[in-house]
Amino acid sequence: MHALNDPAAIKARFIAARGYWRPWTEALLHANPAFLSTYAEYAGYPARTGPLTPRMVELIYVALDTSPTHLYEAGLTTHLKLALAAGASEADVFDVLHLVTLQGLGAVLQAADVLDEAAPSAALPPDDPLAARIQALWPDQAASLLRLAAQDPGYVAVLLDFVEGGAPAGGLSHAERLLVRIALHAAFTEGNRGALQALIPHALTQGVTRAEILQVIQLGAHPAVHGASLGATVYTKVVADNRNEPGKADATA
């Protein structure tokens, strides 16, 4: 393990591993340098050792930070800049945003399946054109979508219109889209096991590798550091405010 008593070396290693330096990292450098040094290795490991390109790693972080389950603007700004620097195109970014918008579908499908169990609907006829569209556009969740279509075909029709027509031209490859979707469902902010049980086997049949899937799963843990970044930032502000208020002792905890 690296020595933890050289702030300049810790800062340099962190920037080399993560590609940025922010006020919260500066606060941690002074208050808890061991955290910063070991976190750089922990977070940097999946980013640099898996098969994904730097462009794709940063696009995964863009997806995680824009996810409705996280919505972390500071992290998004950092990783969007890094993604563009790594060669991501405008179409790549807006393709990610399209997939992020579809993240909410997972909850709809789970709840609609529960409703169908409690109050079953007649199955959608297999020759219904909607059934063919479901299989073509969202095959990994076809069973749930077919049950939902039996309950409300109009909803599924407009959903598939958005799936098919809402993505920009020239964006991510099919495999890359699957990886973004896996990352969103696997992240600690969602953890949708049912979606993953359908999506991961499908991705493997589409040429996505086990190593690529494992890498995006591991990347999904690291937005949790935003709790530490918030805490370090607020702590620094509170201490500074206390020092500037006459008669108040410095905060120590």
TrEMBL record:
GO molecular function: peroxiredoxin activity
Residue stretches spanning the membrane: none
All copies of domain Carboxymuconolactone decarboxylase-like, residue ranges: 33-116
Protein origin, superkingdom: Bacteria
InterPro entries: AhpD-like (IPR029032), CMD-like (IPR003779)
PANTHER family: ALKYL HYDROPEROXIDE REDUCTASE AHPD (PTHR33930), BLR3452 PROTEIN (PTHR33930:SF2)
Protein name from the UniProt record: Carboxymuconolactone decarboxylase
Provenance organism: Achromobacter spanius
